[in-house]
Every structure is written in structure tokens, then in C-alpha cells.
Amino acid sequence: xxxxxxxxxxxxxxxxxxxxxxxxxxxxxxxxxxxxxxxxxxxxxxxxxxxxxxxxxxxxxxxxxxxxxxxxxxxxxxxxxxxxxxxxxxxxxxxxxxxxxxxxxxxxxxxxxxxxxxxxxxxxxxxxxxxxxxxxxxxxxxxxxxxxxxxxxxxxxxxxxxxxxxxxxxxxxxxxxxxxxxxxxxxxxxxxxxxxxxxxxxxxxxxxxxxxxxxxxxxxxxxxxxxxxxxxxxxxxxxxxxxxxxxxxxxxxxxxxxxxxxxxxxxxxxxxxxxxxxxxxxxxxxxxxxxxxxxxxxxxxxxxxxxxxxxxxxxxxxxxxxxxxxxxxxxxxxxxxxxxxxxxxxxxxxxxxxxxxxxxxxxxxxxxxxxxxxxxxxxxxxxxxxxxxxxxxxxxxxxxxxxxxxxx
Length: 408
Fold this sequence. Notes:
By secondary structure, the protein is α/β, with parallel strands linked by helices. It has helices spanning 3-8, 33-45, 64-71, 95-107, 118-131, 151-162, 174-182, 209-218, 240-250, 272-283, 298-304, 319-326, 339-342, 357-369, 371-388, 391-403; strands at 21-25, 51-55, 112-115, 135-139, 168-171, 190-192, 226-231, 257-262, 289-293, 307-310, 331-334, 350-352. The protein has a six-stranded parallel sheet with strand order 2-1-3-4-5-6, with helices on both faces. 49% of the residues are buried.
């Protein structure tokens, strides 16, 4: 039996099974944690109800995730793709897009729409209202519009638009729940459902030693190298330049340290790869920083790394951290968003302040110099994931949360 079948068979059929649910994403063109979560949610839900995927922005129906969903016979609908940037006055009031989406929701008798971003939800408010379809938002950002020009004003305007329009919010951490409440969203409309991991798929035993040796060889790393891995889109918010700076300081005393960054470019930051390469050159570590691009098997990559490094400026509850913990890998991460909850406030990982390269270097140095401590926290991390982030429980809770408000 496949993993998807195993997971979906644990979800109870609901009264809204006759109506499809729509999972709406800004884009499927990248392969980040949000896209992977949409994919596994769709696979888990589809045995008991039709599920459709709705990309919302131009280019969003392309990429590995879209191809994978289509190959699993899950429709990826290109109905009304919004532009990424406002280039014409009509983009401020896109009646044509709203009309097309309203017709889509009515024609397909949609029971509920789940948007995986605030930006996407803002495009769906009017079509859902016109079609009488409940709109839910699964928030994978700890602070919407973080780092963008005019972020405070954007949050204010978005809050006014969404406060009465969103039927339910689904968040990944208690911190995100508190931030939503401070943003003015009714607390009774907020469900906290943590990310989940398939514990059978993501286990050390599921990645054989030959696969790990092969991956290290493909990464150009020897058995003696200390491989620091980062699994992230190439975007300034991921703060990968901080990881490069920390590596430069670490290599002064630990010359076998290497940094491998796995992830493709972000659509709104197409030049960031060259910026990171330039930073590596300036830091004198160009030869020991590798940009591996998108990897088809993140399990083998994480298992082949000696440590996962998560240097982001903003996160909600990164899937890559849960995946590394499930594989008993040590994790160093900045204490932002819901990250501290995932690492037990440092009990089974290393938390460092945001933008602090020296603290990051010290944490990496401890993992390098104290492998027994790294193994101890790795084992604790696996136990934590098994207790709090089992995907079968997450899938059941998602199904129940959506069913509570979906149209019968």
C-alpha cells in the first residue's frame, strides 16, 4: 500500500464528501515546504472527496509539484492567473479574474476553498463571497508581508478585508495564533494544527547507507568533510548570506566544513543566486559553498548532511526542520516565528538569534566538536516529532477542521 493511501485511509468520510475542496496556492512553480504540504494534503484527502488545486499567480501552474499532482490525477486548474506586479490600473480591480473564479466555484459546486497565503486569500474574498463558498486560510507565514515595502500598511488594509471574510484560519504554531489574534482576527476562528511528518517515510532506516554515500559523493563531499546543509528557496528572507558568513568564520578553525544549499530560485528574487555567489567570493569561501539547486530526494540530502542550518529572518513552522529532526539530524536555526517551538526552546536543537553569525558559528562548532551531544539531541528530536507531529494525526485534524465549515 502506498504512503498516500495509508495516510488517506485514516481520514473519516465527511458529510461534505460530494463537493470538491479547493487548495489554492500562490504558485506551484517552486518546491518549498508550502508546496510540499499542499501536495501531501491533497493526496491524503482525495480518497474521501474530490480535491482540486488552484494556482493563483502567473506561472503558478508549472513546476515539479504541479506535475506530480497531475500525475496523481488531481486537477490543477488554470482559471484566472493574477499578475505578480501591478502593471495596469485594471490590476487594482480585476473584475475579469473575479468573475472567472466565481463561475469556477459555482460550476464545480465547490464545498470549501483553502488558501495557503494571505496574498492568495485577498484574491479569493470576492469570488468566495459571491459563490457562497467558505474561505479558509492555512497560514504558512508568521508575519504576512514581512520585509516588504509598506508592510505595516499592507497588513492594516489586508486585516480589514479579511477579518469578516475568512471563515477559519489554520495556523502551525501558538505564536502564529497569537500574532493573528493581535492582528484582529477572532480567536474563535483560529485552529492550531501543527505541520506533520510521515514517520515511516522520514526515518533513518528509510534511507540506506549506500544512498547517503551516493548523495555525499554527488555533493562532492568526502567522509571526513563536515557538511552543513540548508534546504530553502533562494530568497532574501531565507537569509542564506548569514549561513555563508558563519561558514567563513567556522572554517578558520574547522577547515573541513562545507555548506551545501539545496533549493531553486524564488520567482520574486530571480537574481538572488548571483548575489549569494558574490557574497561567498567576498567571504573567501566560494570553493566550499555549493548551490545544488532543486533535489528530487530531500530525504537523502538531509540524511547526508551532518547538520541542517536554518538561518531565516522569518518562518512559521519550517517543514525542513521537522524532516531533519525525524531523520535524527542535528538542527541549528534562528529563533524566529514558530521555530523555537519545533526545537523545544533548544532542548533538541540549537537556537541562535536572527542575524547573529557568531552565535551560529559557535553552535556549528559545538556540533562538530561534540558528536555525542549532536546524536543525543538528534534522538530527542525524533522522539519530539513522533509525539507531536505525526502526519496521520495532522491529516485527520485538517479534514475535521475543513469539514466543520464546508458546504454539505
